[in-house]
Design goal:
Layout (H helix, E strand, L loop, with lengths): L2 E8 L3 H13 L4 E5 L3 H12 L9 E4 L8 E6 L15 H16 L6 E4 L4 H12 L6 E3 L3 H15 L6 E2 L2 E2 L7 E2 L5 E2 L2 E2 H7 L5 H23 L4 H15 L4 E10 L5 E12 L2 E5 L6 H18 L5
Parallel strand pairs: 1-2, 1-4, 2-3, 4-5, 5-6
Antiparallel strand pairs: 7-10, 8-9, 10-11, 12-13, 13-14
Helix pairs in contact: 1-2, 1-8, 3-4, 5-7
């Protein structure tokens, strides 16, 4: 029997602990188990976060074991090697695939019936790996994908246009990484095409501005890692948002990592596309309009991921 208000966090590093802290404040769950290869680390983080419960809603946060997976509605995996300065997300592949080969069988052995949310990097590759190793239906294995990248894009556009970021509708799609694509052709501000709104706000150099904004979004993680060695607060908020959508069955549209089956000429890989997400995971992909250039870039992004998958033994 699934407890819809129970979550399990696997990995208690910066991202895992910040995510549990964010979830604690959200009041979404009544119970969160934290699992880590270092039990002392899991216990310490659980204790520290629990001390904030009197300022939030009552719940249980504790260091658990894989047995806690049995009745959880969502299992979140942040476990993996950290991305070091100068290292791309794809450089992490071999180290983190090896870690997943230890984690996923433990989950499968407990007959897990909920949603598996992959956050560890490279998230598209590891979501694919998790699907294959777990045998779970593809709709129930979700990668955090470009949810954070899309938030970064909205934040940049909000600053550029001096307008509320929640009024901006735009997506980063493809790989969560260097080959990501800003889907400018479908971007709008409350239904007004982006270029028209830019001109309304006094901006006319569209090509130059969009290239600069897309570059800053793509390089955000590298800039943060260079300054503070890791990124974790932004992604923790992205994890909270994905969990909200699932627990509340919001059927919101999020650019999560999902299996591609021929859409836009892409097949056989997992990457980010806007999807309707609810209590059963991914319901369907949203067929956003892409320009020919964006389609080609998406196919190139997929080819980058497909090349890496060739060297992975599952």
């Amino acid at each position: 029997m699934i407890n819809v208000r129970k979550a399990v966090m696997i990995g208690c590093g910066f991202v895992g602990s910040a995510s549990v802290f964010s979830l604690m404040q959200s009041g979404l769950f009544s119970e969160i188990a934290m699992i880590d290869a270092d039990m002392d680390k899991a216990e310490g983080e659980a204790m520290d976060i629990s001390h904030g419960i009197p300022f939030a809603k009552e719940m249980k946060i504790y260091a658990g074991s894989y047995d806690d997976v049995r009745d959880a509605s969502i299992v979140i995996i942040t476990a993996g090697a950290n991305q070091k300065p100068g290292e791309t997300r794809l450089d992490l592949v071999k180290k983190n695939v090896a870690i997943f080969k230890q984690i996923i069988p433990e989950i499968s052995a407990r007959n897990f019936g909920g949603i598996l949310l992959i956050v560890a990097n490279p998230v598209d590759i590891l979501t694919y790996v998790a699907q294959k190793l777990s045998g779970l239906p593809a709709n129930r294995v979700i990668g955090s994908g470009t949810v954070l990248d899309t938030a970064r894009l909205k934040h940049r556009l909000s600053e550029h246009l001096n307008v509320d970021s929640k009024s901006i509708h735009a997506f980063i799609i493809g790989e969560h990484g260097d080959s990501e694509i800003a889907a400018w052709s479908s971007a709008n501000v409350s239904g007004i095409p982006l270029n028209d709104f830019c001109e309304m706000r006094g901006h006319y150099e569209h090509d130059e501005a969009t290239k600069e904004i897309a570059k800053k979004v793509r390089d955000s993680a590298y800039e943060i890692i260079e300054r503070k060695r890791a990124t974790y607060f932004g992604v923790a908020m992205a994890v909270k948002r994905i969990c909200e959508v699932i627990v509340r069955d919001e059927k919101s549209i999020l650019p999560v990592s999902t299996q591609m089956n021929g859409e836009h000429g892409v097949d056989g890989v997992v990457l980010s596309m806007p999807c309707i997400v609810g209590k059963d995971g991914i319901e369907t992909k949203v067929p956003i309009t892409l320009s020919q250039e964006e389609r080609e870039k998406l196919q190139e992004s997929a080819a980058t991921l497909r090349e890496i998958l060739k060297d992975i033994e599952l």
